[in-house]
UniProtKB/TrEMBL annotation:
SMART domains: 7TM_GPCR_Srsx. The chain crosses the membrane at residues 6-30, 42-67, 79-101, 122-145, 165-189, 240-264, 276-297. PANTHER family: G PROTEIN-COUPLED RECEPTOR (PTHR22752), G-PROTEIN COUPLED RECEPTORS FAMILY 1 PROFILE DOMAIN-CONTAINING PROTEIN (PTHR22752:SF14). This is G-protein coupled receptors family 1 profile domain-containing protein. GO terms for cellular component: plasma membrane. One of its GO terms (molecular function) is neuropeptide Y receptor activity. The keyword Membrane applies. Belongs to the G-protein coupled receptor 1 family. The keyword NAD does not apply. It is a multi-pass membrane protein.
Amino acid sequence: MTPATIMEATILVIICTASFLGNITLFIIIRRRKNLRTITNGFLLNLAFADLLVSMLNMPITVVTIVEQQWIFGDSACVFFGFITMLSFVSSVMSLAMIAINRYYYVVQWKTYRSIFTPRKSVLFAAVVWLISLFLSVPPLFGWAEYRYISGKSYCFVFWPSDVYYMYFMITICFFGPLTAICTSYYNILKFTREAKRRVNQHRANIKTQQAIETEQENDISFYERHKRRFRMTQEEVKITNTLLIVVACFMICWAPFVITMFIDVYYPRPLPRVINIGTLLLGYASSMCNPVVYGIRNQAFRSELIRLFTGCYCSRLTSRRVAVVDTPQASSVEARQMNLRAELQ
């Protein structure tokens, strides 16, 4: 193997390990912490599951392919892994759009949120995400484009030059559609929170104004008291929304170079350099580990539960060692003497 091959494989192994452990940890922590079992985090786990698919299936196969410098698993396996890559990618984009819509209803349309995003309906929404992703990933299996080994990227995916209309279709439905929903949702959230802050500050100033008559002051106070709790909750939700917006930004930044090379492969006759092809693929794969990293840094409840999880494992090891020591004859005799001494003192 060349030094470049070793470096490519090593980087991908690190990404694969970090993605798998990070997303598994995300599942464990949300399962352990009751206050983290929210509707929004349910959609976040939907995204994490798509990342797990990539880290468990696609990344290890890509590592082998990089080392072997060829596809060794047969045509049927190539079609299967290409399909899984497309399925997980589309479901990730759709999950990000669903998260954005969920945040919009929670912050802006909060009066109708509980009726729309019930636990049962949220499970249905998550299932719809995967059904749409399945529908969009199936066409190459039936002749509209094809899944093929891409030697420049050492993996199997859609061979876009086989049918550019499928590429246009996917860009329109899978990219611009979710991107429009994401941008519209977060724009309205930002607009709402700014307006809420402006109105509350304005009425807070009116309360302090001594020139208003008493009845007007009472009206201002009642308005402020009615909206104070809602505004405080909005501030907390804005922090969560900003965290999820960072997740979206990381995903887009990681996959944007890959999408650009996709266009170049179709319209540029000469193949791109290996460093660009494999570099954009590794960057796209790296998005799978961004989700738990960003959430862990930005979410204090997640961070504290993560510390508790690992310290708990460490403490359990120490406890097991202590038990092993106590089970020895010397320790048993010492413990017996201590018990006798306590009995005498009583």
